[in-house]
Write a structure and sequence with these properties.
manganese, single chain, 412 residues, seven-stranded mixed β-sheet, alpha/beta, 2 domains, 15 helices, ARMT-1-like_metal-bd_sf, Rossmann fold
Amino acid sequence: MITSADPDSFPHSVLAERHPALIRQVRDAFPYPPDRQQALDALAAETAWSAAGTAAGRIAPLPAGAHDEARWGRWGRPYVGQSWFEVPFLWAESYFYRRLLEAVGHFGPGPWQGVDPFAPFKRAELRGAAVAEELAALDEVPGLPREEQDRAVLGGALWGNRADLGFRISAGGGTDTGAGTGGEGGGGRGAGEDARDGVIVDDADRFWRHLGPAGPASTPSGATALHLVADNAGRELIPDLILLDHLLTTGRAATAVLHVKPYPYFVSDATTADVVDCLRRITEAPGRAGRIGARLWDAMTSGRLAVRDHWFFCAPLPYAAMPDDLRADLAQAAVTVFKGDLNYRRLVGDRHHPATTPFASLTSYAPSPLLALRTLKSDVAVGLDPDVLADLERDGGAWRTGGTHAVVQFRA
């Protein structure tokens, strides 16, 4: 199990550097009253790594009567009272964000109930020049051969996963919401670029063959719906919506379901409100983007594109532990696309797996065929060819955590 105990590890840097920077940014982004500011300061003190090289505080439980207190009480029973840096990294990250929402009063009652503490960052990103450039690049796609159109929209969704506000939080307190398309932590790539650059596992052809030229391949259930489990809002969610439009308009999917978080989770995780914001941004754009936005709007109002949420998407648990109702929902899918690093960690387990461990063996529990689109931003890596792994290790660098490499992994 991956933890943050090693001071030289990537997980340790997230807890010791990224989380304090995020608390400061959230505190500065709103005119929170003194009690909310004090709660944020208390969370910062509890989760800090001290100058003496030790954990400053111990994990405290949610206050009595808090929203979902019982559920988090069960999940946190083995960890409350321990150091934040010694418990499983996935649980520590998830619980940090749950505690952050508690500190700002998101679950109420009170005037701050329902206010997304990350909304200013998400909205700034949508207004940025990078989004305008990426939407304008869609005008190039119709001129491409069909196979290259498929590659372009899938590559956009894949590399859009680099557009992660949490990934771009800096210890200095800045958030890069307008990064260019080519740099580390940037967003999608232009339609003319080779989206396979940096992809260390590429099962895209298997995915397209499974869908077939006009509708999913035969499945035991006869399912024709495509499900997509979203990760981030803004510059990642827009390419996801464009991918869904492409699948619907080319007949690869008769209907589609977009799964989002029921409330804010990690910094830029997508909620229903974010879907609406992104859809409006696409619809208001000139050219082909605006036409795609209009089609998506019609697809949602007609029911061909549904948006759903589920409490489990904000749980610190692997997808192998998904509840029966979510399993039954995903079982209806011809394919379920899982976006992003956090979903990937939950798919295969947030562990130090040997990197050549087969992806299919770790996801055999999933109730339908699945495709993982993930830019590597954490230590987990599976399904790699031994020669590819050897080259990556020989070259050095933070290939597991720097957002410079990606995987497209399909399991029928």
